[in-house]
Structures are given as C-alpha cells and as structure tokens.
Automatic annotation (TrEMBL):
This protein's record includes keyword Hydrolase: yes
PROSITE patterns to which the protein is assigned, alphabetical: ASP_PROTEASE (PS00141), PEPTIDASE_A1 (PS51767)
GO terms for biological process, alphabetical: proteolysis
Family: Belongs to the peptidase A1 family.
Name of this chain's protein: Aspartyl protease family protein
UniProt feature coiled coil, ranges: none
A GO molecular function held by the record: aspartic-type endopeptidase activity
Organism: Pandanus utilis
Amino acid sequence: DRGRDFFCLPCDCPRGAPEFEFSIYSPSMSLTSQRVPCNSSLCQSDCPTANQCPYKIAYVSADTSSSGILVEDVLYLTTEDEVVEAQIIFGCGQVQTGSFLNVAAPNGLFGLGMEKISVPSLLATTGLTSDSFSMCFGPDGVGRISFGDKGSSDQEETPFTPNPTYNISITGMAIGNSIDTEFSALFDSGTSFTYLADPFYTHLSGSFDSQVLDKRDTRIPFEYCYDMSFNSTQIPSVTLTARGGSQFPVSEPTIIIPILQHESVYCLAVLKSNTLNIIGQNFMTGMRIVFDRERMILGWKQFNCNVEESSSLPIYPQNSPPTISVGPSSYNPEA
C-alpha cells in the first residue's frame, strides 16, 4: 500500500478477529522473530517494559485501527538466482478494528510509503536494494512488486510533488477530447478505484458520459453505469497528462458488474471525493509503475504484468465493490 508507511499484520489477535478465516502471524511460531526494544530508534511510544515497543495507529475509515507491539523478523525476497533474507520491522497487531476485519484489509497493510519505517526504506537502509521499487497490476486481479527496480530508460516519467506521499501533478485529461486542467493526485494501490474531487470529477465523468452510446443504468452505486451492448466495445479512452508532458493511458477506466445471470453493466470506476484526488489501482492496470525515491520520480510503461519476472501478490479482484481507503485522516477520500 503506497499511501501508508507502516507494515502491520494480524498477530495472535485475542479479540476483534473476524468470523471468516484469515492469515495470522504468530511470533511464537517463528524461530527468527524478535521483539523491538523500547530504546530502538523506531520506537516512538511510552513503553511499559523495556523489552518491547507498543504501537497504536488509528485510521479514519470505519473506525479502523491496529494496536500491538513492534517485532523484527525475516522477509524472504526472491531474486533471479537466490533467496534473500531481509530483516524488517513491522507491527504485530493484537487488536484490529474496522476495515482490518472485513474484505478491505483482513491480512494487514504492506507499508510502502516514504518514511523510514516503511518496507522499501528498511531494505534500502540495509543496502539490500536501491531506494526504488515497481508494481505491476494485471487485469486478472494479480499484482507483483519488485524492490530495487528503477525502471527502464524508455519509460515515461514525472517528478513527485513536495509531499510525504507519492503525489504527482496532472496537467491534462483526455476522454476522447482533451481537457486542460491541473491538480495534484496521490498514486495509491491501497485504494481499489480512483477518486477525484470537483471540478475534475465532473470534467472527466461528464465528458465520458457524453461519448457513451449505451443506455444509462442507475441500479449500481457508481454514478455512471451503462447496459452492456454490442457498442460497449467503443468505450471512450482515458489518458492523463503529467507535468513534463508525459502521457499516462488508462487501460481499465471501467469495471464490469454482473446484475443478473445473463445481464451485466459497465461503470466508470471513478468516485467523487470531497477534497483528495487518488489514482487508484484500477488506473494502474497494465502498467509497470516505478516509484524511484532516489530520483523522486514516478515512472511508467505499458507492460504485460502476467510475465513471470518477479514474485506475485494477490490484490483486490477487478470486480470487487468500492473499498474504503484504510489511510490516516489526511488521506481519506470520503472526508
């Protein structure tokens, strides 16, 4: 999750566990697990005992929080010819609430932000990788992450804006017709769909709707949904222009939702936000997205994300409902 820094897992949860089966990390079952002591530079809490560091992190969405202790353990990374053992620090969440107990994030959050507690920062600090990583999302709901990946010389690029998160400046949108506009947007795979605040949401959705030939369908929570038909193959294309002029073509601006056994609709997978603009996972499909923290640039290139070049991680299914962002209050698209 690129919008957050802190990596946390459900860990021997004594209470707050959901009614469905999910993965739990148990320090007692790991021979390499160690508690982070109170005097660690990463410990910012008042400690009841010297041999452990408690944490509690609260999120805005649906009363979501995680609390427990910091632990250190081995993260196994696969390279082309060997397995690398990386020591990382993460939250052992003993009490989980809100979105951690449902489909949004039942197995925790993999913190990929810019702060020193994040996984990429820990890997770079120890010299295991360059301070850069890439993610690649296929249309089948599977994504991969590659730590140390700085992309390729022929990728498109744009600088990050001064911000503690992965924000870039969008200078234009083309939905069939070009629209000159400028706004800052956060690239965040932890948000399944894309959120835009007005006037940018109205510009994009209105232009998209004016070019669709299919009948509008109002049975779905998305604002702009249409009945599937033969002409549905003529869905308007969406392209973003980033600062510097690089083009970001969106291969999956819509989502297909089954209604009845032989009936489906497709929807513009963009939701209205009050303030924050978020480029969600759906807009990243079919791209290798590079987060180069050394050069402070975002890079991208169209890519076959099904090619087995790195480890695979499951992500939200393409036809999942809109999820609630599990970010701190400053990242809440619904605030």
